[in-house]
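Private note to self, pasted from the team thread so I don't lose it. Backbone tokens:
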């Protein structure tokens, strides 16, 4: 099935393959998408497409986001690959095709949660604690608790976006104070705090919001803080291939604040350093100093 759609119209008007097949939930085939910028240049992407309305509009929006030269290809569920360039009256200006986006799904290695079984288990727990789960206030509690726990341990998908490090930036990129929360796997009580993440770019730079996305992806699990810190650092090191990565997490654990020793307000700080941020003393000290300042 060929779903080629060519359109030259002003920005702001809809350009969609669904004009060809409005009833399709998922489409697959060759794609050519052209759109006219205010400058008069035509942005064009050719390649393979698989997806529905949302993916099509995402592809269109990405094309419109670069007005002179498109030097990207779309990966993941959009799946547009091939040639990209800006075409104008003076001829074709070539654009390099570089992968920059892919859909990230974390494989947890555990079975998919059984929501109905979780609800029954919560009802049984309430009974074991001497409460009546059929009472007016508790009747819907098993569902609420099951939904909340499943949400807290289910990683969210996101689009990992990277860009060429064209300027050769070789200093640290640091994001401090990223809110983070997870569930302690020993007591199933939350721990919450902030993460400070730094990396020294290699060939590519990361869309800055993705540092928080990666932290959230690993935090949505039954966790211990030490493992969470290392997972974030290792994932960035393996997938971004930077010159160095640093992660510091400071968090208060409710299993310590609300029970047992009841040391409310106590913070646990963990760190993980990779590459130049581990081996280069000056870079390491700079990052840890920034993290310490943010912790105050």
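Design output:
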């Amino acid at each position: 099935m060929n779903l080629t759609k060519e359109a030259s119209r002003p920005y702001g008007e809809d350009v969609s393959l669904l004009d060809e097949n409005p009833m399709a939930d998922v489409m697959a085939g060759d794609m050519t998408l052209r759109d006219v910028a205010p400058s008069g240049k035509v942005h064009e992407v050719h390649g393979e497409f698989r997806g529905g309305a949302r993916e099509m509009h995402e592809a269109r929006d990405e094309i419109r986001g670069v007005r002179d030269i498109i030097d990207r290809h779309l990966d993941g569920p959009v799946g547009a690959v091939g040639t990209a360039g800006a075409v104008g009256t003076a001829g074709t200006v070539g654009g390099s095709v570089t992968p920059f986006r892919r859909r990230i799904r974390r494989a947890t290695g555990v079975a998919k949660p059984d929501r109905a079984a979780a609800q029954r288990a919560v009802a049984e727990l309430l009974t074991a604690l001497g409460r009546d789960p059929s009472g007016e206030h508790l009747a819907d509690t098993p569902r609420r608790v099951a939904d909340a726990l499943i949400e807290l341990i289910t990683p969210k998908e996101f689009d990992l976006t990277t860009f060429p490090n064209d300027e050769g930036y070789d200093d640290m990129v640091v994001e401090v104070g990223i809110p983070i929360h997870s569930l302690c796997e020993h007591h199933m009580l939350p721990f919450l705090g902030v993460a400070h993440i730094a990396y020294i770019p290699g060939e590519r730079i990361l869309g800055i919001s993705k540092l928080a996305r990666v932290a959230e992806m690993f935090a949505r699990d039954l966790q211990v803080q030490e493992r969470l810190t290392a997972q974030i650092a290792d994932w960035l090191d393996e997938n971004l291939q930077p010159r160095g990565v640093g992660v510091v997490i400071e968090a208060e654990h409710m299993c310590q604040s609300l029970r047992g020793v009841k040391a409310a307000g106590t913070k646990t700080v963990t760190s993980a350093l990779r590459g130049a941020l581990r081996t280069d003393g000056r870079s390491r000290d700079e990052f840890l100093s920034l993290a310490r300042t943010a912790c105050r």
